[in-house]
Amino acid sequence: MVLLSLIDGCPHIEIANAFLITDNKLKQYKNPVCSVSGGADSDMMVDIICKVDFDKKTKFVFFNTGLEYKATIEHLDYLERK
Known about the structure:
Layout: H1 2-8, H2 13-27, E1 33-35, H3 40-52, E2 59-61, H4 70-81
Parallel strand pairs: 1-2
């Protein structure tokens, strides 16, 4: 199983736990949604979700308040392309 290989390759138990918790949460919902702000915490969530969401069912959303820095918008564009 791919999830087990992710966990086995983790250098820290906290990262392995994050994979397990995220996998468990995603299995509880038919159409999960993750809000992304463009900050470091959002980047981590996108990375973790993309690694455990094998069915690619999670939708990522960004709510543009008009107050974001240009660099934040550029970073979000980069994440979307990736």
